[in-house]
C-alpha cells in the first residue's frame, strides 16, 4: 500500500479534501494510507514550542531543527530497511512536474514536511536529507495546501484509483504536450458548435486533429515545454 506521512502543525487539515471523491474512495478502499503527524507533539517544553526567532535577526519565526527531527525520526524504515522519499514543501524547491509525480506514485509513498512561518532551519534540510519541492513561483502561508496538491496528484496514479486507466495516459504533460480542447453535448451552445472532425466518427482524423491542437496550444502557451518536446523529437 502506498503510504503518506505528513508532518504538520495543523493535522486537522488532513485528509481534508483528500477524504472526498477519488482519493477519499481510494483511502476507504485502503489503496493508500495517510497519517498526519502533529509536529507539536514532539516539542519538549511546556509551551510546546516549534519555532524560534531567526539567527541574524529579521522578521518572522523559523521552525526548529531539533523538534522537526524528533518528529521525522519517529518514522521507521520499512521491512526492507528502505526509507520513503522525504519531501519538504518549499518555494525554493524544484518545481513539481508530472514526471516526478509519476516516480513518487510508483514508489512506496512519501514523507512530507509542511513548513510554516519563514520556513525551517537549514540544518534540518541537510541533516535529514530533505528534497525541497515547490508548487510554483508563489508563496503560500504554509506547506499544507502544497502537500494536499502533491498527494492528490500522486494518489490518482496509484493502480486501481482512477476508473479509466487510459485517462492518465492522454492528459496534459503525459507526452510533453498540453492537452487538446475538449467538448461535449449539446452540439450547439450559445451559437458555438463542436469541430466537425470530432463528430465525424473517423478515429484517425480525430487523432490527427487532437495531436495538431495539442501541439498548437503547447507552442502558443508554453514555449518552454514546446522547446523540450522539439528537442526530444530530434533523432
Ligand atoms: N520565507 C519563505 C516562505 C515561507 S512560506 C521564502 O521566502 O522562501 C511558509 C511555508 O509555506 C514554507 O516553509 C513552505 O512549506 C510553504 N510554501 C510556501 N510557498 C510554497 C510553494 N510555492 N511551494 C511549496 N510550498 C510552499
**Low-confidence regions:** none
Count of helical segments?
8
Examine the secondary-structure arrangement and name the CATH architecture of the largest domain. 3-Layer(aba) Sandwich
Form type: elongated
Query: How many whole angstroms does the radius of gyration measure?
Result: 22 Å
Number of domains: 2
Structural class: alpha/beta
Amino-to-carboxy terminus distance? 40 Å
Average pLDDT metric: 95
**So what's the CATH class of the largest domain?**
Alpha Beta
Report the oligomer. single chain
Succession of helices and strands: EHEEEHEHEHEHHEEHH
* Total strand segments: 9
CATH fold group of the largest domain: Alpha/beta knot
Which ligands does the model contain, each kind named once?
A: S-adenosyl-L-homocysteine
Protein described:
This protein has helices spanning 21-28, 65-72, 98-106, 122-127, 144-155, 166-170, 203-221, 223-233; strands at 2-8, 32-38, 51-52, 62-63, 86-95, 109-114, 131-134, 188-189, 192-193. The chain is elongated. Helix 3 (98-106) crosses helix 5 (144-155) and helix 7 crosses helix 8 (223-233). The protein contains 8 helices and 9 strands. The chain folds into 2 domains: 2-155, SPOUT methyltransferase, trefoil knot domain (Alpha/beta knot, 3-Layer(aba) Sandwich); 172-233, Trp Operon Repressor, Chain A. The strands form 3 sheets. It has a 5-stranded parallel sheet with strand order 2-1-6-5-7, with helices on both faces. A two-stranded antiparallel ribbon has the order 3-4. A two-stranded antiparallel ribbon has the order 8-9. It has 235 residues and is an alpha/beta fold. The longest helix is centred in the C-terminal third of the chain and has 19 residues, at 203-221. It binds S-adenosyl-L-homocysteine (SAH). S-adenosyl-L-homocysteine binds at residues 89-92, 114-116, 118-119, 134-136, 138-140, 142-143, 146.
Amino acid at each position: 500500500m502506498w503510504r503518506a506521512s505528513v508532518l504538520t502543525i495543523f493535522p486537522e487539515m488532513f485528509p481534508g479534501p483528500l477524504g472526498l471523491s477519488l482519493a477519499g474512495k481510494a483511502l476507504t478502499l485502503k489503496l493508500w494510507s495517510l497519517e498526519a503527524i502533529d509536529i507539536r507533539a514532539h516539542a519538549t517544553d511546556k509551551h510546546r514550542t516549534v519555532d524560534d526567532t531567526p539567527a541574524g535577526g529579521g522578521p518572522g519565526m523559523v521552525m526548529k531543527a531539533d523538534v522537526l527531527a524528533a518528529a521525522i525520526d519517529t518514522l521507521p524504515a520499512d521491512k526492507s530497511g528502505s526509507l520513503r522519499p522525504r519531501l519538504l514543501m518549499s518555494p525554493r524547491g524544484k518545481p513539481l512536474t508530472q514526471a516526478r509525480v509519476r516516480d513518487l506514485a510508483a514508489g512506496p509513498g512519501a514523507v512530507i514536511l509542511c513548513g510554516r512561518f519563514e520556513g525551517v532551519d537549514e540544518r534540518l534540510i541537510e541533516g535529514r536529507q530533505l528534497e525541497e519541492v515547490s508548487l510554483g513561483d508563489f508563496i503560500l502561508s504554509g506547506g499544507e495546501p502544497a502537500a494536499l496538491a502533491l498527494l492528490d496528484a500522486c494518489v490518482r496514479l496509484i493502480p486501481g484509483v482512477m476508473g479509466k486507466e487510459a485517462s492518465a495516459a492522454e492528459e496534459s504533460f503525459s507526452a510533453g504536450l498540453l492537452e487538446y480542447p475538449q467538448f461535449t453535448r449539446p452540439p450547439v451552445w450559445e451559437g458555438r458548435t463542436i469541430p466537425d472532425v470530432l463528430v465525424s466518427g473517423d478515429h484517425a482524423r480525430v487523432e490527427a486533429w487532437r495531436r495538431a491542437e495539442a501541439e498548437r496550444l503547447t507552442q502558443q502557451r508554453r514555449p518552454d515545454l514546446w522547446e523540450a518536446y522539439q528537442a526530444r523529437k530530434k533523432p
